[in-house]
Write a structure and sequence with these properties.
The protein is 36% helix and 20% strand. It is an alpha/beta fold and 557 residues long.
């Protein structure tokens, strides 16, 4: 966890100001409501960018009556917004938004705003101070479930939707995390229940200069007169591609049925592709991961660079592999780049040792008296103490600080993060792994071997489900937590040793993943017709390419 000290004011306050192209677009769309008068709310108005947009847009739309209420905690920013000359009624309150809501809802039983616009602050949970208690109480009242890890924007979005009139709109600039982050699962479900139409606009290029955060435009409408609920995602290249036709005539196909459960990443796909995936996922030939295997995080040392050492460090400490006085020296499976194939072998381990990689883990016996350790180990512990390791959180909550708990290995490993694609790895030498790697073990009732399981997971359907269940951040890296891995779709196939060796050799020769999937799909997905296999592969390509293209757009800035 990053500490508060050293963080920028922008990160602490969540202040990333809205480009006028976006504020004008959202304002024009919002003012498109067919009402003679509009009560508008902006929950975190900053220095008044949306106030200026209303000034620019409203006269173009027959200059209807507008009453604007802005809330801004930073008084100096609020004052700038107040001083903007407006042709409509405008008031900007210098207070915390959630305190405003608390007072407001005491006198108003239902939503009173026709339009809510804004770019709520992106404040990480550990820095979210002002109004957090009230925000959590409001979510409890609304029945929205989340976790203690929730960012402030989540509370702003949910609370603002609760303030909308029956026929009204909301236009927000929020992180793309809404589509996939676990702590937003309850909000996603609630938004579908509350709103009748949702359009999400995404961009292939970065929206905010110098901010490695993908943002989306969230457009929602309460309109019971609509025949059915709808949700779709519209992808644009850049800000200048924004146009009002996105709302009325979207290019993307809307799903025929909106699921209350699951992530919204799937809505990047066409309706037919979503239907095919869900049909295959629910077929008898496919099982869900947690029916086959158990998964948990790797060993949490609290200081990997201290506890994981190279072969040369091993020699300096006078240690041998296995048991030593007061400490065990354990073989370690390190980074994904350290494992080339579908299995991790002794040859791989020895090669990593020669290449100077961190191939060993120090496992201290907490019951062994420290004064009996060798002088080399005692000196090493002192060096860790000089670097304040006992104050690092995970080290500080154990006694002694250097005794790492829950140290065990499993015969299958999966890296927490991956770039192009992820894979299961057979760990047939009982190497140990840190928390950058998930530990996986097959259930006793499962007839597959660890090799067969790793083979069967490398197919287009499972890779597609990884993209759908996982999440991605800066750099286009795909990340999966144990909870997300448990939902993966696994078409069970018992490969032969020869088939396993073919794929293992492919990987070691850096063969293109498309070539590997040509081979594995023909076997693992043989229960599907060729056309369906192609469509599943194309769906995976679509999501993977979008994720990796985001990384390229960031590196080119």
């Amino acid at each position: 966890m990053r500490q508060r000290t050293g963080e920028s004011a922008e990160k602490l306050n969540g202040a990333y100001y809205t480009p006028s192209t976006i504020s004008d677009f959202l304002t024009e769309w919002g003012l498109g409501l067919e009402k003679k008068s509009l009560d508008i709310l902006e929950p975190s108005c900053g220095d008044g960018e949306f106030v200026r947009s209303i000034n620019r847009i409203n006269p173009l739309l027959l200059n209807r009556k507008v009453v604007f209420t802005g809330i801004e905690l930073n008084e100096s920013e609020a004052q700038i917004a107040r001083e903007i000359k407006c042709d409509y009624e405008s008031k900007v309150l210098g207070e915390d938004f959630f305190q405003f809501v608390k007072s407001y809802t005491k006198s108003v039983q239902s939503g009173e705003f026709d339009l809510i616009l804004g770019n709520p602050p992106y404040i990480r949970y550990q820095y979210f101070e002002h109004g957090k208690k009230e925000a959590e109480l409001q979510f409890k009242k609304l029945g929205i479930k989340t976790t203690k890890l929730a960012n402030a924007w989540l509370y702003f979005l949910g609370t603002c939707v609760s303030l909308m009139k029956t026929h009204s709109r909301i236009g927000f600039v929020i992180p793309a995390e809404l589509l996939h982050i676990n702590y937003a699962a309850g909000l996603r479900r609630w938004l579908i229940e509350q709103l009748d139409k949702i359009v999400i606009v995404t961009f292939r290029e970065l929206v905010f200069p110098n901010v490695q955060q993908e943002v989306i435009l969230f457009l929602g409408e309460k309109n019971p007169s609509l025949d059915e609920k709808s949700l779709h995602i519209e992808q644009l290249n850049k800000l200048n591609d924004l146009n009002q036709g996105i709302w009325d005539t979207p290019k993307s196909k809307s799903p025929s049925k909106i699921s209350l459960l699951g992530k919204w990443n799937k809505y990047y796909l066409d309706n037919e592709d979503i239907t095919l995936f869900e049909s295959v996922r629910n077929s008898s030939e496919v099982q869900i991961f947690d029916q086959i295997a158990d998964v948990g995080i790797g060993i949490v040392t609290g200081a990997n660079k201290f506890f994981c050492i190279e072969h040369d460090r091993k020699k300096l400490l006078g240690l041998r592999q296995g048991n030593n006085k007061g400490v065990k020296l354990l073989k370690m499976l390190g980074k994904s780049s350290d494992v080339k194939g579908l299995e991790f072998t002794n040859k791989d381990f020895e090669k990593n040792c020669r290449n100077g990689l961190r191939t060993y883990m120090l496992y201290f016996d907490k019951n062994y008296k420290r004064e009996k350790l060798t002088k080399e180990l005692e000196s090493y512990l002192i060096s860790g103490e000089k670097n304040n390791l006992p104050q690092v959180y995970k080290c500080s909550i154990r006694e002694p600080w250097y005794a790492v708990p829950y140290v065990f290995s499993t015969d299958i490993a999966m890296f927490k993060r991956a770039s192009g694609y992820n894979r299961m790895i057979t760990n047939n030498i009982n190497a140990y792994t840190t928390d950058t790697v998930h530990r996986i073990s097959l259930k006793e009732s499962v007839k597959l071997s660890s090799k067969q399981f790793c083979f069967t997971c490398l197919n287009s359907l499972t890779l597609l489900s990884m993209e759908l269940e996982g999440r991605n951040y800066g750099g286009g890296v795909l990340e999966l937590t144990p909870g997300e891995i448990n939902k993966l779709s696994i078409p069970v196939f018992a490969c032969t040793d020869e088939q396993f060796q073919v794929v293992d050799l492919y990987l070691r020769k850096n063969t293109a993943i498309e070539t590997i999937l040509d081979y594995t799909d023909e076997l693992v997905l043989s229960f599907l017709g060729k056309d369906d296999r192609i469509r599943i592969r194309n769906s995976w390509r679509t999501l993977k390419s979008r994720r990796l293209n985001r990384a390229k757009s960031k590196s080119n800035r």
